[in-house]
């Protein structure tokens, strides 16, 4: 009598586990020569170019950022010394033509020519010249100054400062904004000091 052995259930082979390709594997695949068909080679060549362009771009950006440290941003301050023309260019009264370029007014009165720095002595706004009222009026808090820059209304504590003036060798008026003359409240006025006014 033939005996039959129970058949063991067939062992099913476990499917091979796919490990994730690492970045190095991916780059190696892109840069290595392959035996792929021509269309695949073209695709790989395009990818290679793309990666090369990205790497080069990153290198250029880093290089530019590095070089930038050697070229600090420059601050361009307005000039503090400049010429405004000859005394004969200025008639009696207030001349506002340098207000935008240099923030000054040139004034001629019976004593000579002087330059008012167009900064309100309250909080630093730029007053407006009102020819019809013969005064400067600050738009911020209402301070008023007469045609020589002397305060007479509003919160301004003192007259506006004046810039240093002198004649250069050609006879032009040279202004130096870094040297100012003031008249603090209750103190001596510097408005008649040499350099505060040109007696011309
Ligand atoms: S800043 Fe001119 S009145 Fe205040």
Helix-strand topology string: HHEEHEEEEEEEE
Strand content: 15-25%
CATH class of the largest domain: Mainly Beta
Mean pLDDT: 85
Q: Identify the CATH architecture of the largest domain.
A: 3-layer Sandwich
Across the major sheet, the strand order is 1-10-9-4-3-2
Q: Which regions have little confidence, pLDDT < 50, spanning 5+ residues?
A: 1-12
Supply Rg: 41 Å
Number of domains: 2
Count of DSSP-assigned helices: 3
CATH fold naming of the largest domain: Rieske Iron-sulfur Protein
Q: What overall geometry do the principal axes of the alpha carbons give?
A: elongated
- The chain-level structural class is alpha+beta
Characteristics of this structure?
200 residues, alpha+beta, Rieske Iron-sulfur Protein, 6-stranded antiparallel beta sheet, 4-stranded antiparallel beta sheet, 10 strands, elongated, disordered N terminus, binds FE2/S2 (inorganic) cluster
List the helices and strands and how they pair.
Layout: H1 23-31, H2 38-68, E1 81-83, E2 93-95, H3 99-102, E3 104-108, E4 113-117, E5 128-130, E6 135-137, E7 144-146, E8 151-153, E9 162-167, E10 173-181
Antiparallel strand pairs: 1-10, 2-3, 3-4, 4-9, 5-6, 6-7, 7-8, 9-10
The structure holds FE2/S2 (inorganic) cluster.
Can you put this structure into words, describing what you see?
It is a single chain. The protein has 200 residues and is an alpha+beta fold. It folds into two domains: 23-68; 81-181, 3-layer Sandwich (Rieske Iron-sulfur Protein). It is built from three helices and ten strands; from the N terminus they run H-H-E-E-H-E-E-E-E-E-E-E-E. It has helices at residues 23-31, 38-68, 99-102, and strands at residues 81-83, 93-95, 104-108, 113-117, 128-130, 135-137, 144-146, 151-153, 162-167, 173-181. A six-stranded antiparallel sheet has the order 1-10-9-4-3-2. The longest helix has 31 residues, at 38-68. The radius of gyration is 41 Å and the shape is elongated. It starts with 22 loop residues before the first helix and ends in a 19-residue tail after the last strand. Residues 120, 122-125, 138, 140-143, 154-156 line the site of FE2/S2 (inorganic) cluster.
């Amino acid at each position: 009598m033939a005996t039959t052995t129970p058949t063991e259930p067939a062992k099913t082979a476990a499917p091979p586990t796919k490990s994730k390709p690492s970045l190095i594997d991916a780059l190696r695949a892109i840069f290595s020569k392959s035996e792929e068909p021509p269309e695949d080679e073209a695709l790989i060549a395009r990818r290679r170019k793309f990666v090369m362009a990205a790497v080069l771009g990153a290198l250029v950006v880093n290089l530019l950022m590095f070089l930038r440290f050697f070229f600090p941003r420059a601050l361009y301050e307005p000039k503090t010394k400049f010429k405004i023309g000859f005394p004969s260019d200025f008639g009696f009264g207030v001349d506002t033509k340098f207000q935008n370029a240099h923030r000054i007014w040139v004034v001629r009165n019976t004593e000579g020519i002087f330059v008012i720095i167009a900064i309100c002595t309250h909080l630093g706004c730029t007053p407006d010249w009102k020819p019809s009222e013969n005064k400067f009026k600050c738009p911020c808090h209402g301070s008023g100054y007469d045609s020589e820059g002397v305060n007479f209304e509003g919160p301004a504590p003192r007259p506006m400062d004046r810039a240093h003036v002198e004649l250069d060798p050609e006879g032009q008026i040279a202004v130096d904004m870094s040297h100012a003359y003031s008249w603090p409240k209750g103190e001596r006025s510097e408005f008649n000091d040499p350099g505060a006014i040109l007696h011309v």
